[in-house]
Amino acid sequence: MDDSHYNPLIEPILALLTDGQSWKVHTLASQLRAHGHLGRLDEDSMADLAKRNFIIMNALFQLQDELLKSDCYLSISSLHIQLVYGHPKQRPSSNDSLREYYLNWQNYALSREQVIDLLDQFWQALPINTLDDTTLARINKRWKLSQPIQMQALKKRWRTLALAYHPDKNTHSNADFQQIHNEYQQLLQYVRVKNNNCN
Predict the structure, then answer these.
(1) What pTM was computed for the model?
(2) Alpha helix stretches (DSSP H) within 109-171
(3) What DSSP character marks residue 59?
(4) Hey, how many other C-beta atoms are within 10 angstroms of the C-beta on 35?
(5) In the chain, N or C terminus with fewer CB closer than 10 Å?
């Protein structure tokens, strides 16, 4: 570990994790903000969200390394973070791409476009349902897209809704955000199929 990149959130996060409950990145972020440990990191809201997630995940992975000497293990995945006591000694996988990404400080200050690309790649890996005409009409009530749907307009609307529905905004749940994401993936697939059929 590079000591010049010590993460000041390690101790506050450890204090939160000692209650033994399961956490998510956005619930940790909310508690860290509430206790004054985490402020705004960028003027651009999307870059701020990416930097906030990065610094929390970086602290978690650094903490995981530090806890290897104790009788507990820090379990980390994107939607489940928990400190497990009395756990047998377990070393993190050396081929963990998520771990490698968040321990590389060069990934902290990505451009807005890079953040959007990373979010798209992450969400595209999640399973999606197919889209029929009835579902398209229902989804478009919320999305308010002109017909025929244009890819550029869809992506712009996704960025707006993703920020509005993100759990870090404290106005919507994970389920609400996942629903918006699922709709986005369905709309993406719909537009791609329509574009391919037109060619």
Answers:
(1) 0.61
(2) 112-124, 133-143, 151-165
(3) H
(4) 11
(5) C
